[in-house]
Amino acid sequence: MKVCNIFFGESKRFVLVTSTGEPVLPVMKYLKYLDSIGKAENTLKSYCYHLKLYFEFLDKHQLNYENIDINLLATFIGWLRSPTGSVNTLHLHATNSKRSENTINTIITCVISFYDYLIRLEQFESNINENVKVQITSRFRDFKPFLHHITKSMKIDKNILKLKAPKRKIRTLSSEQIQLIYNCCANIRDRFLIRLLYEGGLRISEALSLWIEDFDINGNTITVRKSKTRSGENRKVFLSEEVMNLFQEYLIDFHLSEFDTNFVFINLTGKNKGQPLSYATINSLIKRLKNKTRINFTPHMLRHTFATELHSKGTDVAIIQRLLGHAHVQTTIQTYLHPSDEELRKNWERAKGANIRAREFSPNNTDIGTE
């Protein structure tokens, strides 16, 4: 099994083919359906690679995708976790899983969604989606929505195949690391992008979709026109005058003199000169900056740092939620707000100092009560 790329104009599509070069038609139709309902290119690519793993597993065990049951999916999970790629190997000692729990959960969700699509087309009889779920009361779930006290007795579906994943600690960057990354940028476009991601807390997809008219130079703000969530769209992001000056210098150096496009971030050289930046170009940029700085980072870590710094400076969580474009404040709290060890120590020392002053301990203090 392998994934092939096919270009339709400026768009890229992904096709899963067998070792003999024949396309896997059910997967091809499923990806075409996802494309027709507006799924992002990266989503299509991820789903194609997830299903590639699933069909490789079926091929290795001489199974047909139509003969699906819960035991087969459980075996598939074991295959995904096995460091040796075998479900028949017995590990007498603790070994690290080949893939993380979150990755396996994502792959299984993709496979179940694939079968759900086939069921809706009436091309598949067994409803595996119902077999992998049990109903529990909503009071057991981690996320507590508005009016939870009223709805907590209602039943919700729980996926019994979902692996329990350890809570991931969000990584952030220090001010020195951000400055080093900024200094190692080769041109004004890259420097502007790094500053924008950091000061605006934008996702990389939001930054790449920006148009020149989204910038309000007089108000030092931008409007996020396109986001992965509805709550993130059309929100205002505030920037410093330095970043706005960088934006104007970038326009003067390239847009106004060379290119006729309203996309802000474009290719400056090569055969795609003047075209909007792609994720592949961004990945190449980040790889070069990693090699130069020796800092292992991603563009999203700049967003993490933005949110964490606002929180450490006492910014209200509801304000951070609006700036990040989250639909629920719980997402902001659980995902982005992580005090560092230094912050924990400072708060502990402040609280301990206040407690000591209040108690006024001394060698002669005998106010400890009597029997």
In which range does the helix fraction lie? 40-55%
What amount of the residues lies in strands?
5-15%
Sheet with the most strands, sense and barrel status: 3 strands, antiparallel
- Shape assignment: globular
CATH architecture label name of the domain at 175-301: Orthogonal Bundle
Task: Provide the CATH topology of the domain at 175-301.
Answer: hpI Integrase, Chain A
Helical element count? Answer: 15
Compressed to H and E, one letter per element, the order equals EEHHHHHEHEHHHEEEHHHHHH
Question: What's the CATH C level of the domain at 175-301?
Answer: Mainly Alpha
What distance separates the N and C termini? 80 Å
Mean pLDDT: 80
Order of adjacent strands in the largest pleated sheet:
5-6-7
Query: So what's the oligomer here?
Result: single chain
